[in-house]
Each structure stands twice: as C-alpha cells, then as structure tokens.
Amino acid sequence: MELPADFIHGMNAMLQEDELSHFLEALAHEPSVSIRVNEAKSGLDDLLSGNPSITPDGRVPWACSGVYLKERPDFTSDPLLHAGCYYVQEASSMFLEQAVRTCVSGPVTMLDLCAAPGGKTTHLCSLLPHGSLLVANEINRSRAAILAENVTKWGAGNVLVTNDTPERIGRSSIMFDIILTDVPCSGEGMFRKDPVAISEWSQANVRMCADRQREILRSIWDSLKPGGHLIYSTCTYNSNEDENNVRWMMNEFGAEPVGIDTAPEWNVAGALDGSSMPVYHFMQHRTRGEGFFLALLKKPGEAVGINMRSKMPKSEDGEFRTWISNPDSYIFDRRDSAVFALPAQYASLMQQVSSEIHTIVPGLQIAVQKGHDWTPAHALSMSSEYDESAFPQCEIDLDTALRYLHLEAIHLEGMPKGYVSVRYKGHRLGFVKNIGNRANNLYPPNWRIRKSI
C-alpha cells in the first residue's frame, strides 16, 4: 500500500513518538470482518446453528450485538442475511452505541442525516427505546434505495426513509431530539479497505470535505431541539475534519462536547491535536477495526416536547388490519394503491415529515391493492409487527431459499393455494402466491440475488 507522503507527514505530527510505525504496519494487514446481530429476529447461537460459513472470533466490546468473524464468508449466499437476521458492519462504527446510551434515556425523535447504506440506521433501530421515531435520510437517490432495502429487512416499524438535502430538512418545521451526522469525509480511516480513497486523497480534498461538513452542520443545526444532542462522526483522522469541526460547532453554535465512558482495554484514542476535548478516535493499530472518529455535542437550551399535530389522521380499514399484531396501536394510511401502518403515537408527525421532506418509505408498508384484492407487501414479511397467524407458513431448504432469492418460481409441497410465508431456518424470507403446480415469487425484483450461486 503506497500512501500519500503528505498523509504520512500529517499522521506523524499527530501520533506519539514511535507510534507511526505501528500505525503504518497495521494498515498493511487485512481488515477485520464483523457483523451485528438483529436480536429482534435472531440470537447469535441461532445464527450460528447449522451455518458453518459464519465463524465467530470474539465480541465487539463496545457493541452488545457486535461479533468479529474469523474470515469473510460469502454473505450473499446466506439467506439469513437477506432475512435481516444480521448486518455486515465495520466494528469501529458500532461505537455509536455508546454515544446513544450516553444521551438517550427515553423515547426520542431522531434523524440519521447521511444514512446510506444503513449500518448505523439499523443499529439505531435496535438501540432506541420503544416509542421512538427514527428518520433515516440519504441525499443520493440510488443510495437511498439501498438504505430503504436494508431498513426494510431489519424489520423495525418506526422508521421513515427520506431522500432530501440537509438544507431542505433544515428549512422544514420538523425538529429532532437527536441528530446523527455521519458526514461524507476524505476517508483516511478506510484506506486499507478502499484503494480508491487513497487515490482520491489530497490536502485540497481534506479542506473541501471540511468545508462541506460545516455547510451540512450549519444547514441542519436549527432542526435540533434546544437541549438536544448531535452526534458527529467521520471515518478519517485529520483535525480539519474532526477536532477543528467540533471546535467550530462550539464557537458557532455554543455546542457543548459531552464525554462518553470508555473502558481502558478498548484502547480508544482521544483528541489527536493535543487538546483535552472529549472526542474519540479509533485507529487500526490500537483497536480491532477501521479508522473512525466520533464526538457527542449538546445544544444549549431546555429540552422541549415532541412536535406533533393535534389532529389524529383518519385510519383506513380493511382485511390488512389483521396482518399485524396490535392493529389498534397503528393508523393505516393509504397512499395510492398501497397501505402503510404508522404507530399511532407518531402518525401525525410521520405524515408531517412526508409532507415537508421527500419521503420514499413513509411507514411500514403492509399491503398493495391489485384490482379488488389486497396483496401482502414484502415489508410486512420482514417486520417484527407481522402476525404469524395471518398466512400459512412453509419452511424451505437452502437450495429452494436461494432459488427464491434469485426470483425463481418454486414449488411448495402440500401447501394450500393463496399467499404463503416462506421461511428458512424459521426466519421469514417473503411471500409467494401458491397456485398449485408452482408458487409465484413475490420477492422484490430489485433485491434479487444477481450473481450465480
């Protein structure tokens, strides 16, 4: 790996004596592989049962459901990944869990501003207390579609996926208790995983990234409630994008950095610019993972309540109500030919978000109308709110599961005609419409496995 000379010179100035050689040596090693288990769907023992391709190699110490693997398996060939039983995520970024545990003690409204592909969003789905609402935003349309796919597979029903700019969100009337800004950066922390990041690195690019990060922070700051918290993170090391931007928020907005408890054995580094501000650096020669930076900041002022419209939206009625557990806890919102379930507590706020911010997933989609009939939506099969008695269930083997994920027609022996929930190792993969001699595949076409397995 040939690193830019200016990058090495900058790291030498920030690291302690003799530390640079250890850092550069670590960059020459293969990156670690880690996953985060979706404990709402699967425990680790369940995930490992009969799945020899996933071999654990210790737990990620700062994330309760994070697991290191001994080697990288062929994740695409594992139906449990597509079922949302786990997410492949870089271990250092799971430190987000400690920031959330520091500043969240009850239900909150939260914005994940730069959310694709969905690692931190799905982590937040598991971390936020029951009764919270999460808005996951991605400015890039194609990446927003990937985000929507990963959020849907995770199965949480309290998430909106939006596709808008920080400027437009900042001008809306929506305010949040917590905002995560995992901002685009120069990517120094990903050098050993992404050779393109090395080729694109320059001091000019670092300055450009720092300026853009401040534009994003300036655009979104007014959307943070007084007394709320902003989590700022990058996957880079330099102080321009890290410590200097934290210091800029302190001077520009009066933001107050908040300390996060860490264990000594985690070997998390503090500020690399010699200051004493509470910020957190993950570096490959100190921790098992890639480069990552995080700071937690509090906005001045007293906390305010949830911004909600007082009028409860009208709820649609139909057979689809019986397809989810506790239907009385939801408002059923019809949009064109689709019906979405919105938690009643946040239904008006969710509709308000959709009216002011470009939204691609306005709630939990449960049904699509085709003619006079309602077809169960794929998101319903992924959801933890699905009522297991709604449709017949059929357990399928690995070969059939992979053919299903390839979007092939499959045959279900001994199953009644109509909609059937197909499962692999007890975990739902989606729906088919069984017509007797074959079962029509209802898996989302854009999600199908494209490579030959």
Features of this protein?
single chain; 453 residues; alpha+beta; nine-stranded mixed beta sheet; four-stranded antiparallel beta sheet; 21 strands
Structure description:
The protein is α+β, with helices and mostly antiparallel strands and 453 residues long. The longest helix is centred in the middle third of the chain and has 18 residues, at 203-220. Helices cover 27% and strands 24% of the residues. The chain is built from 14 helices and 21 strands. It is globular and about 70 Å long. The strands form 4 sheets. Strands 5, 6, 7, 8, 9, 10, 11, 12 and 15 form a 9-stranded mixed β-sheet that branches. Helix 5 packs parallel to helix 6 and helix 6 runs parallel beside helix 7. The chain starts with a helix and ends in a 12-residue tail after the last strand. The mean pLDDT is 95. It has helices at 5-14, 19-27, 44-48, 79-82, 96-103, 119-127, 141-154, 166-171, 195-200, 203-220, 243-253, 347-356, 378-382, 398-405; strands spanning 33-37, 56-59, 66-69, 86-88, 109-112, 133-137, 159-162, 176-182, 224-234, 256-258, 280-282, 292-298, 330-335, 338-343, 359-361, 364-370, 373-376, 393-395, 418-424, 427-434, 439-441.
